[in-house]
Amino acid sequence: MLNFTQARTLSIAGAALPAYGVDGLPVFAPVRLRGTEAIGRIDLCHYVVTLRTDDAYAFSPSVTANLDLDKIVGTEVTVSIQLEGKGRFVPGLVGGAGLGNVGAGTREITGLVTEARVAGEDRHSILYELELRPWLYRTTLTQDCRIFQDMSVVEITEAVLAKYPYSVDKRLAGAFDGLYPKRDVQRQAFESDWAFLQRLWEEWGIWWWFEHEDGHQRLVLCDTMGGHHPHGAAYETLRYLSPDGKRIDEEHIHALSVTSRLTSGSVTVVDYDYTRPRANLTVTEEHPRRTASADGEIYDWGDHSQPLAGAQGISGEPNDAEREARHLARVQLEAKRCAGLRANGSGNLRGLTVGRTFALTGYPQQAANREYVVVSCLLDIEEVGDRTGAGRAYRCDAQFELLPANEPFRLERSVSKPVLSGPEKAIVVGPEGQEVWTDQYGRVKVQFAWDRQGRLDEQSGIWLRVLSPWQGADLGATFLPRIGHEVAVLHYFGDPDLPVISGSPVNAFRQPTLDLPANQAVAVWRGREFQGTASGHVALDDTQGQIQTQIVSDAGTSLLALGNIRRILKKKGRADARGKGFDLRTDDWGVVRALKGLFVLTDGEPGAPGHAKEAREAVGRLTRARELQESLSELAQQHEAQQRDADQSEVAKSIKTRNDSIKGNPPRAVDDFPELAERDIVLAGPAGISLASERTAHVASNEDVAITSGRHVGFAVGHSLFASVSNAFTLFVHKAGMALVAAAGKVRIEAQADGIDLRAKRSVNVESVTESIELHAAKEIVLHAGNTQVRISDQGYTVHTVGDHTVHAGRHQTEGPKGIGGGFPPFPKSGPGQLEVLRHYVTDAPVDKSAFAVTDSLGVKHAGMLDASGRAVVSGLAPGSVRVAYERDPHDPWDLSSYLEQARWRPGGVAWYPPTFNAIQN
After folding, report:
1. Strands in 408-485 per DSSP E
2. Residues 537, 433 within the same domain
3. What are 266-277's pLDDT values in tens digits?
4. Is residue 894 domain-shared with residue 867, that is, in the same domain?
């Protein structure tokens, strides 16, 4: 016969329960235990145990009714249930066939006392009720807000439960082999520890239940059906027997129904990752049950792709988005699917334990006789004993729900992620001594105002993008909040794991850019120098009657002000007025560059009614100047001062070319503005243009320089006037004559390589006022006057005349030969010369930007680059022949300008040698 370890079916023990005598005998005896347990449902895990004082001790009600309940609440107690096992001992049977009470023992239920109350009295005994819950219930009594970065669901679980001194058994060997992927950011958003963990467990497919042993309760976390262990010998196989069937000597199931339900057949999850904006992050998992109409689809936001927003930022390892998405979709699908086939039953099963498995036998439906997992169980055991405790009659009823053990179990989502509807406050953080800490996405790190674990440094907070009204694709405006700035943070879909910075407000330490309300009419964008105090700003001053737009940089005190020019100073804002119009100034260098052309005009009408390049007045003045150039050059050519159709005529043609370019071709459409067809600079002012320099002024042109004046051109030179001309120098005066006067010093006219022609229509007067006139010639001097000639040479002095030869002298004397030569100073030798280098295609198109090298007669190499017209002037060359070498044509050989006609095939593989030739220096 079996000796049981306790006299009653139910017993209770707990360190805080009152005891009697030196042996510590329990004062209370449990008379009823009722409650439920369910996998993964904290609200369905609780028991109520009813206690009464033991009749054998005859305690006074005045004593037993006044226990201190506060000492019991919050402590652990263990209720033990005596299990009889199954079968009666039959002597004489072989082996274990005749054994009785197989699987007998004790089942424990340990829980935390969450409520204790006086429930009344029963005859001479006081009744108490204790409500027991698993220790996980303590996690429902908390609320926290914190961020977990670069942690998996298992690591987060360990971090949250670390403050609870209880046992956790992790049976995680399913997806990812128990090594769950890390998430960039997972936030507990003012949730209880239980709500936060429960929703993570539900999302990732982890479920839980409690096991009880040796007076302790153990939380079991599981993600695979293999984590469910079978019952002991008494319950590893349970028999179904209908209520009207024959009586058997074992606990059994007397009622059971098997239900098949219609469930969803597929789950599709989608996500967006801004680090991979074009990636297809949609994943579908399908596994419909074998019922009709099982094709229902669930479409959900997956949040599976991680944009490396955790503590490591972009230096972290990208996650396997597709694999994780498939797992998350499969978890949702299996949560729906596992509810499709369930069994519900009841029986006198005091030892049926949630989370354990058993095999069913004896059910009429053969397919139902299989292995099951106990999903939930409602247990009600009532102890009925006499005053001596000898009787052990009791009532036991267990109602339960079962899942076939070959069907994956998942928890339905019962806890929703919090929805954050408004902005949150945060502070931008980063390394000490830095102004901004950002990455390639313009993200900054922030620490939320509620974060009590952060240290306001680069190790705190999370990486967030910054919203702007318009930015991205190399467009828009990007403003990065600086370290220490307060920012407002919103959340996509209200999801606490998807934050983004929406703006930056002011606070007591970060005041507005300008003093307010004094500058309330001024809108300003201002930056500040890193590690400094200098700044720049763009300001729109909307003060009535004084509007202006201003761009300012403290670097070089540079400024562009438009409108009513008024100084805007740092925090003070609007200061002294400085004028109207526009002001462009700097203390440093200034550059105005326009690649296609530039107008600087003071022509026009108020309000600018014409288009921007309107320049009729300037073109008219330039046209009149060109006509004057043409008419005067024609006069010079008529008077043989210049060659016809050359010399100054070429200058007039250049002026016309430039004028035509400035004017442009006639417009072809309303929005066609043809002015400045080439890269000209035009300066025009109806009143005048003045140029002044304290030192040197320089005008340079590779081709022609034309100066045209309708009245006078005056040169006033404080020291000397020099003109060095490479070829010809011609002066032509049409009417009033020409004067060349030296008030002091010598006038010298030389022709070092040719003669000098002096010609006048009337008299030529050569006069020395105070000294003599000397004529020198190396060979001879010939004087002509009408038919008379006087020839003076080394051969003598000869006079030819048809008239009289009269000599007047005070005395005549003739002596022997004697020569007196005047002598001539040597002409200077030519110094370094210059060479004009040209390179054109056969179509006369210039080969611009072509490199060349000129080697002079002394072997000195002069290298350079041709200009846009295919021309260059090389100076400093030694006299004599030179060698010119061009580098390879830098242009595409397929360019049509390289050919006389369009090529029919693209040339290739043709050897090329730089052309060389000798040129005589000019």
Report:
1. 424-429, 444-448, 462-464, 471-472, 475-476
2. no
3. 999 999 999 999
4. yes
